[in-house]
Amino acid sequence: MIVNHAKGVRFEEGGCVAAESGASLATLARRCMNQGLAGLEWAVNVPGTVGGAVINNAGAHGGNMAASLRWLSCLMFRTGLMSRCGREPDAVWLPPFDLEGDRGRYVVLGATLVLEPGHDPDALNAKADEFVAHRKRTQPPGASLAASSKTRRATTRDV
Predict the structure, then answer these.
(1) 34: left (phi > 0), else alpha (psi -120 to 50), else beta?
(2) Average pLDDT for consecutive 10-residue bins of the chain (159 residues)?
(3) Under DSSP, is residue 92 helix (H, G, I), strand (E, B) or coil?
(4) Helix (H, G, I), strand (E, B) or coil at 53
(5) Is residue 84 a part of any domain in this protein?
(6) Which domain holds residue 93?
(7) Does a cis peptide bond (omega within 30 degrees of 0) precede residue 96?
(8) What confidence tens digit (pLDDT) does each residue in 87-116 have?
(9) Cα distance between residue 51 and residue 141, in whole Å
(10) With a threshold of 0.85, does the pTM exceed it?
(11) Contact 84, 61 (CB under 8 A)
(12) Is 2 a member of any domain?
């Protein structure tokens, strides 16, 4: 089992946030909201890491990683070199960007997101709390995989 301990987050000017791939997506979302940065409210209740969210273009409630992703840093297994991929603002570009043919041949090291500064942290947290409440009302508690495994076992016994 591989455990990613790269969990650093750095807030930069202009709404840029550099996050290492092992950073918790939900924790990053709350930290950004508390800084008045809008754009990750949808992620407040999404489990997983920044690296996984980037590769799978995680999203919820109308938002996703591709909407705010500006730079992706990764290590290419074939060459042992670090690669940094970027995109222009407003360009349509879904992960894994120009690495599409190399899926499974690299590991994400970090990502730089561009969020919208200048928002009221209380308003952002209230919006995120609405998303959390919606999830609690509409989805089973716990991990989705565990819930589907229990359902599958129950179905097998009933057959």
Answers:
(1) alpha
(2) 86 95 96 97 93 88 90 83 70 50 74 96 95 87 55 37
(3) coil
(4) helix
(5) yes
(6) 9-158
(7) yes
(8) 665 555 444 445 555 556 778 899 999 999
(9) 24
(10) no
(11) no
(12) no
